[in-house]
């Protein structure tokens, strides 16, 4: 097990309206640690020196809750494809390396402290229409509507989005199209979700715009950085559904 | 005296009959009643959404930045339901029976039967919400099998079933938030329960962004705040899972039931170093196809531990498939407690396979070959080489478990298609929890507990794919009815003022607690105390327990607690975003809860389910239950010096108690 001596250059910002700055710390890690465990080591060190630890968000540490959110060496969730920060291990870094750690940056994700950002705009997009309107107890038998296996699989792949916001952080326009389109696709591909698709897509796009997310210009950085490999074709699906709703909707 | 309030009648009719008798609250009155729901996992989100749909005014709280982050999201394998879509003889009764037996006869019959009944509706509800379950080519829902049962009743969405179910509940909740029936409070952690005239009427929360303490009042409080597995520090739980909401209720008089019943899951990625912050589960579904083994010869095991030999180098005849050997009827699919203990036995004998000696193999080579052959036949390909067959087989295995294999590769840097996985048991779930009656109401009127937070359905051991089932059953299909038993008597009760004396007092208590921790100004971090607490719990209240160890462990926790209040250091202030303070508050509650677990484990002088007392074993070394003396729920009233035990006797009318055998 070999030790890594690293310089961690990390964004420090006390509150929402502070200007913020980088600070560099020396950390000794080993290659079996996850990136977040390396930050734990840094924080234990800072607390022992009675200094303010670096605020960062994390929870499940197995790549599924979508809480961890940081940009590592310029890439949301770091250099490894299809991997969240919590599952990124230190063996992918070099001895003596300087690692730059920043928060997700987008105008719709204001920084709250250090690496912590406010992503409640995502919740409001879902609240605007990212659901199927069914109350508890209203459901017919689960097998009443057969769904083509491949279609269900595609719907699942869109539903695998963890709502972390890396797509927004990666996008030069700060657009939330990948996130929003994944939900529109997940529900729209299923017969039970098709029913209210027109309303859904209209409402979600309107909310997305209201939150201050940028426009999509098909750059594709979102797809490249998405830890769950959500596909750009979801955006095409959304665009089709949106266009259709403009012509056929009320 | 604990009153379980089990309704009368035959077990298969109790719930249906009871539902039609529960007093209702008319729609115009529902609008006047407020309910607080704490937690937004499967149970909390399902409850908040369903109660909102019914017309109650719901206030819902989570300490996460979004209700979609709760740890239900990490459940992998699946959710059970007695649909019998597989035509393999399943029924509500069989699911009920399996769950009681799996729990080693320490759960309440009536609750478990209701759970089995609700399981059927859960699947329908989730499909209607758009949960993309796995399907057959004919478009119908697919099933697989899980540990401890002989039918295929588990519905799943690849290895991300919990995520998909939680997203379904989150969307239902989001819809209600959008409609205004649910008021959502993110980044608010409950740190006190408020009682008015002995009834639960509100909570005090800490706003995690600003540190502000806020009082929230309601007619009833529903806790869905999960389990306490993190008392062990290392567990498969998420980092912020904690016991605080439940423990704060215990400090206000709620009873904690069977706290020593914890589940150690057999298939987790082994511990690799001191810095480690959490353990990662490899889904139980893997035991459908993976075979568990260790080298027969100790010298082979030692060579593997030293890195001189690899698992693939060990010849077939030199492998000990110990689960298949010891439990031929269930083989690799024995329940979790049995599988975990068997792995521990092999490792204790010196046959473990990682550098620490604490790991066994989970091997897919046989499954890969079998699937490869089937696939070749399907495609009409004959005369394939072994390599070609394996290639085909790997594709099938990848389609089934791809994301789990990837996760394993990412964490360990080893390719599980080519080398057997290394796994070891780890703390995963807690069957114990707040004592509740049939209505899911605690002994404090108006305080309800759902999901992992309560003790009710899993006895001494939970079967795989049952936690998701219970969380959703409680949230969607039980609490919307049973809360009526309490609220129907409250329709004339005016709204409570969150500035009333009981709230002011609770806020002050919370403030004092925070100030006490900040004022210690010692030298050790909350994290370091947590790690030490976890080690004590694992060593003395883990997979095997004995009287001497439990007594010692209890004393060690008391000493650690004393040290905590002398030498803790929390940086920063109370009125700011301060994760170290959050941690310290949680660790303080874990200390007391951990002590209670020791007390409970000490008192239960029998082995049952996940609770294995070394003094109580059969001649073959299996767990030995003692129904005569311990067929009860141990519900504890907290007292710093000596917690007081209240017993609820378990009556089994429909299932005969037998020795649980999977041989």
Structure description:
The complex is a heterodimer of chains A (250) and B (663). In chain A, a hairpin with an 8-residue loop joins β1 (3-12) and β2 (21-30). Chain A folds into two domains: 3-112, Beta-grasp domain (Ubiquitin-like (UB roll)); 120-248, Fumarate Reductase Iron-sulfur Protein, Chain B, domain 2. The model of chain A has no long low-confidence stretch (mean pLDDT 96). The relative contact order of chain A is 0.14. A five-stranded mixed sheet of chain A has the order 2-1-5-3-4. In chain A, strands 6-7 form a two-stranded antiparallel ribbon. Chain A contains nine helices and seven strands. With 250 residues, chain A is α+β, with helices and mostly antiparallel strands. With 663 residues, chain B is an alpha+beta fold. Chain B is globular and about 80 Å long. Chain B is 39% helix and 14% strand. In chain B, α3 (42-54) runs parallel beside α6 (161-179), α5 (109-129) crosses α13 and α11 (365-378) crosses α12. Chain B is built from 18 helices and 20 strands. Classes of the chains: A alpha+beta (250), B alpha+beta (663). Chains A and B meet through α1, α2 and α3 of A and α3, α5, α6, α12 and α13 of B.
In angstroms, what is the radius of gyration of chain A? 20 Å
What's the total number of strands of chain B? 20
Question: How big a fraction of the residues of chain A is strand?
Answer: 5-15%
Q: Helical region count of chain A?
A: 9
* Total tally of structural domains of chain A: 2
Biggest sheet of chain A: strands side by side, in what order?
2-1-5-3-4
Report the radius of gyration of chain B as a whole number of Å.
25 Å
| Strand-residue proportion of chain B | 5-15%
Largest sheet of chain B: 5 strands, parallel
Query: What's the overall average pLDDT of chain B, rounded?
Result: 96
Helix content of chain B: 25-40%
Low-confidence stretches of chain B: none
Shape of chain A: elongated
Number of helices in the DSSP assignment of chain B: 18
For the record, what CATH class of the largest domain in chain A applies? Mainly Alpha
Q: Report mean pLDDT of chain A, rounded to a whole number.
A: 96
Give the C-level CATH assignment of the domain at 264-427 in chain B: Alpha Beta
- Look at the helices and sheets of chain A and give the structural class: alpha+beta
Assembly state (oligomeric):
heterodimer
Query: Roughly how many Å apart are the termini of chain B?
Result: 39 Å
- Helical fraction of chain A: 25-40%
């Amino acid at each position: 097990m070999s030790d890594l001596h690293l310089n961690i250059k990390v964004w420090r910002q006390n509150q929402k309206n502070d200007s913020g700055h980088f600070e560099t710390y020396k950390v000794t890690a080993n290659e079996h640690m996850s990136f977040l465990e390396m930050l734990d080591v840094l924080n234990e060190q800072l607390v022992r020196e009675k200094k303010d630890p670096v605020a960062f968000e994390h929870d499940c540490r197995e790549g599924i809750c979508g809480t961890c959110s940081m940009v590592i060496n310029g890439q949301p969730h770091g250099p490894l494809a299809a991997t969240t920060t919590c599952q990124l291990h230190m063996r992918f870094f070099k001895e003596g390396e300087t690692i730059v750690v920043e928060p997700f940056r987008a105008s719709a994700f204001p920084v709250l402290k250090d690496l912590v950002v406010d992503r409640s705009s995502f919740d409001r997009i879902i609240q605007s229409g990212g659901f199927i309107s069914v109350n508890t107890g209203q459901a017919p038998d689960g097998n009443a509507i057969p769904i083509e296996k491949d279609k269900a699989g595609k719907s699942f792949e869109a539903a695998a989005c963890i709502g972390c916001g890396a797509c927004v952080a990666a996008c030069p326009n700060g657009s939330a199209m990948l996130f929003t389109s994944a939900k529109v696709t997940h529900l729209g591909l299923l017969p039970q979700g098709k029913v209210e698709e027109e309303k859904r897509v209209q409402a979600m796009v309107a909310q997305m715009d209201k939150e201050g997310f940028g426009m999509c210009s098909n750059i594709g950085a979102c797809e490249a950085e998405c830890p769950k490999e959500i596909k750009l074709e979801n955006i095409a699906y959304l665009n089709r559904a949106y266009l259709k709703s403009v012509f056929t909707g009320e | 005296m604990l009153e379980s309030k089990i309704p009368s009648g035959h077990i298969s009719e109790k719930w249906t009959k009871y539902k039609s008798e529960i007093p209702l609250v008319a729609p115009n009155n529902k609008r006047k009643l407020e309910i607080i729901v704490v937690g937004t996992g499967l149970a909390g989100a399902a409850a908040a959404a369903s109660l909102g749909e019914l017309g109650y005014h719901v206030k819902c709280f989570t300490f996460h930045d979004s209700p979609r982050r709760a740890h239900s999201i990490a459940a992998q394998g699946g959710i059970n339901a007695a649909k019998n879509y597989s035509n393999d003889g399943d029924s509500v009764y069989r699911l009920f029976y399996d769950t009681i037996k799996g729990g080693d006869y320490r759960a309440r019959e009536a609750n478990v039967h209701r759970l089995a009944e609700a399981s059927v509706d859960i699947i329908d509800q989730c499909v209607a919400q758009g949960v993309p379950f796995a399907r057959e080519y004919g478009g119908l829902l697919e099933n697989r099998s899980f540990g401890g049962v002989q039918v295929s009743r588990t519905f799943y969405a690849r290895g991300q079933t919990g995520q998909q179910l939680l997203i379904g509940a989150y969307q239902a909740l989001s819809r209600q938030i959008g409609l205004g029936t649910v008021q959502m409070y993110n980044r608010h952690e409950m740190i006190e329960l408020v009682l008015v005239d002995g009834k639960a009427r509100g909570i005090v929360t800490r706003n995690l962004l600003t540190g502000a303490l806020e009082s929230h009042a309601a007619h009833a409080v529903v806790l869905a705040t999960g389990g306490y597995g993190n008392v062990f520090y290392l567990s498969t739980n998420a980092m912020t899972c904690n016991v605080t909401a439940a423990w704060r209720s215990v400090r206000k008089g709620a009873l904690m039931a069977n706290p020593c019943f914890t589940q150690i899951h057999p298939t987790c990625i082994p511990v690799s170093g001191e810095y480690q912050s959490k353990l990662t589960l490899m889904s139980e579904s893997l035991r459908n196809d993976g075979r568990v083994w260790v080298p027969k010869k100790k010298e082979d095991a030692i060579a593997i531990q030293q890195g001189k030999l690899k698992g693939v180098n060990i010849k077939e005849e030199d492998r000990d498939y110990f689960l298949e050997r010891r439990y031929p009827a269930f083989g690799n699919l024995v329940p979790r407690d049995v599988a975990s203990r068997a792995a521990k036995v092999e490792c204790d004998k010196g046959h473990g396979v990682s550098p620490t000696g604490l790991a066994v193999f989970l091997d897919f080579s046989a499954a890969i070959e079998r699937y490869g052959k089937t696939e070749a036949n399907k495609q009409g390909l004959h005369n394939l080489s072994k390599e070609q067959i394996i290639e085909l087989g790997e594709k099938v295995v990848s389609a089934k478990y791809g994301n789990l294999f990837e996760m394993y590769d990412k964490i360990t840097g080893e390719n599980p298609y080519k080398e057997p996985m290394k796994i070891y048991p780890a703390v995963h779930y807690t069957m114990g929890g707040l004592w509740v009656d049939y209505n899911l109401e605690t002994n404090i009127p108006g305080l309800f507990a759902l999901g992992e937070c309560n003790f009710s359905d899993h006895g001494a051991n939970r079967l795989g794919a049952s936690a998701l089932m219970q969380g959703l059953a409680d949230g969607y299909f039980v609490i919307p009815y049973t809360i009526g038993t309490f609220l129907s008597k409250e329709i004339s009760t005016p709204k409570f003022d969150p500035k009333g004396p009981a709230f002011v007092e609770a806020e002050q208590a919370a403030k004092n607690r925070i100030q006490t921790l900040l004022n210690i100004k010692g030298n050790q971090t909350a994290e370091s105390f947590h790690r030490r607490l976890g080690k004590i719990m694992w060593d003395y209240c883990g997979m095997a327990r004995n009287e001497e160890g439990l007594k010692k462990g209890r004393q060690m926790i008391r000493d650690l607690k004393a040290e905590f209040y002398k030498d803790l250091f929390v940086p920063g202030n109370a009125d700011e975003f301060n994760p170290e303070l959050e941690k310290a508050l949680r660790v303080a509650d874990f200390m007391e809860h951990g002590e209670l677990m020791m007390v409970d484990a000490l008192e239960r002088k029998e082995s049952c389910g996940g609770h294995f007392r070394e003094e109580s074993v059969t001649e073959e070394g299996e767990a030995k239950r003692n129904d005569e003396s311990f067929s009860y729920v141990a519900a504890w009233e907290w007292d710093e010096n000596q917690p007081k035990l209240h017993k609820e006797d378990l009556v089994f009318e429909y299932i005969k108690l037998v020795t649980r055998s999977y041989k």
